[in-house]
Amino acid sequence: QVQLVESGGGLVQAGGSLRLSCAASGLTFNDYAAAWFRQAPGKEREFVAAITRSGGDTKYADSVKGRFTFSRDYAKNTVYLQMNSLKPADTAVYYCAAGFRALSVYASNYYYWGQGTQVTVSS
């Protein structure tokens, strides 16, 4: 059974940092491109960041570029999203996803999803 499990969310003040993790079981994360999406209350799920299978290339939403960093650890079968200089507008449930299309910004291109982790940024 394939599972993606996110962790690392929480409550942080504006300007603070969090690191989200997404650990995979039942699949080899190395075989998949990966992405992070987020969904704020009353809004649609939106693309945050994506990474290739090799980890050699990344793509970010304009709203997080320069503040967030996506990385992956093959030995741990885990991907990470380092979030710095957080803003209240970053408040959302964050989801990791795995798929085959590299650097896609479309949720429909990802086959496996985690359950989400809540990130709340206070002003």
What does this structure look like?
The protein has 123 residues and is mainly β. It is built from no helices and 11 strands. The protein has strands at 3-7, 10-13, 18-25, 33-39, 46-51, 58-60, 68-73, 78-83, 92-99, 110-113, 117-122. The strands form 2 sheets. Strands 2, 4, 5, 6, 9, 10 and 11 form a 7-stranded mixed β-sheet that branches. A 4-stranded antiparallel β-sheet has the order 1-3-8-7, with no helix packed on it. β4 and β5 form a beta hairpin.
Set out the fold topology.
Blueprint: E1 3-7, E2 10-13, E3 18-25, E4 33-39, E5 46-51, E6 58-60, E7 68-73, E8 78-83, E9 92-99, E10 110-113, E11 117-122
Parallel strand pairs: 2-11
Antiparallel strand pairs: 1-3, 3-8, 4-5, 4-9, 5-6, 7-8, 9-10, 9-11
